[in-house]
Amino acid sequence: MGLVGKWTAATAVAVFGLGFGAMRAAADIVPGNGKDDSNCYADLDIDDTGGATIEYETKSTVYSCVDGSACDLDETCNGECKFHFRVCINVPDREGCTPPGTLEKLKAKGSVTGVKGSGGKIVLEGIEELLTGTVCGAFVDAIVPLKGNESNPKSGKAKVKLDAKAEKGVKPRKDKDKYDLVCEPAPGGCPSASGAFVD
């Protein structure tokens, strides 16, 4: 369950050379739960949101996917969901929010609930490079196992936090967002899901 995003020279060229529009592919930029007037400073770009349920709650943006459905990128009903996402900054065309163009600071961190040690950490490398322009970082994978057991599966979750800060003189200056990436059990269970559950 390694959750490390690789930031290579080739990735950097792609991100900063091609720009935001050319990097869109099939992913969808999902707004965070920050304040409307700063909620375009930094967001998550989530690969293949088909079949996902997205709820914009006060405490977090909740992105839910049923194990084995289109938004589960391991394409298998197996007791866990695979999420593929990246961080994007200065998101255009967001109503009520003007991208600052340049950020002073950007932080991002995440973890998979119930998974201990390095396997439960979501490492978004190269985030410190995302400060200028309308660009996105490297994609990372998060494997989120269901809780409980095969006879009584329960939803599992990963949490991602973004903290973007614009340069002095920009108002508002901060955008703080929280995302819950939720793996939901498949109705009727999976043919074989042994070993994928966490307590």
Report on this structure.
With 199 residues, the protein is mainly beta. The protein has one domain (9-184). 7% of the residues lie in helices and 38% in strands. The protein is built from one helix and twelve strands; from the N terminus they run H-E-E-E-E-E-E-E-E-E-E-E-E. The chain has one helix at residues 9-22; strands spanning 27-30, 42-47, 53-56, 61-66, 80-89, 103-112, 121-122, 140-145, 147-149, 152-154, 156-166, 174-184. Strands 3-4-12-11-6-7 form a six-stranded mixed beta sheet, with no helix packed on it. A hairpin with a 2-residue loop joins strand 9 and strand 10. 39% of the residues are buried.
Write the layout of secondary structure elements.
Layout lengths: L8 H14 L4 E4 L11 E6 L5 E4 L4 E6 L13 E10 L13 E10 L8 E2 L17 E6 L1 E3 L2 E3 L1 E11 L7 E11 L15
Parallel strand pairs: 4-12
Antiparallel strand pairs: 1-2, 2-5, 3-4, 5-8, 6-7, 6-11, 9-10, 11-12
What attributes does this structure have?
199 residues, mainly beta, 6-stranded mixed β-sheet, 4-stranded antiparallel β-sheet, 7% helix, 38% strand, elongated, disordered N terminus
- Described by the principal axes of the CA atoms, the overall outline is elongated
| Residue windows where pLDDT falls under 50 for at least 5 positions | 1-26
Structural class: mainly beta
Count of individual helical segments:
1
Helix share bin: under 10%
Average pLDDT rating: 84
Strand order of the largest sheet: 3-4-12-11-6-7
Radius of gyration: 17 Å
| Domain module count | 1
Distance between the termini: 16 Å
Largest sheet: 6 strands, mixed
Number of strands: 12
As a percent range, the share of strand residues is: 35-45%
Order of helices and strands: HEEEEEEEEEEEE
